[in-house]
Amino acid sequence: MRLKKFSDKTVLVTGACGTIGSELIRQLIEDSTANVVCVDNNESELFFMMELYRLTNRVRCYLADIRDIDGLKLRMQGVDIVLHTAALKHVGLCEDSPNQAIQTNIIGTQNVIDAAISNRVERVIFSSSDKAVNPTNVMGTSKLMGERLMTAASESNQEGSTVFASTRFGNVLGSRGSVVPLFRRQIESGGPITLTDPQMTRFIMTLNEAAALVLESVWLARGGEVMVTKMPVAQIVDIANILRDEIAGEREIEISIIGSQPGEKMYEELMNDEEVRRTWEHGEFFVILSAFADYSSSEYVHLADSLQPDRPYNSAHESSMSREMVRDYFRARGLLE
Question: Which CATH class name applies to 7-237+262-332?
Answer without folding.
Answer: alpha beta
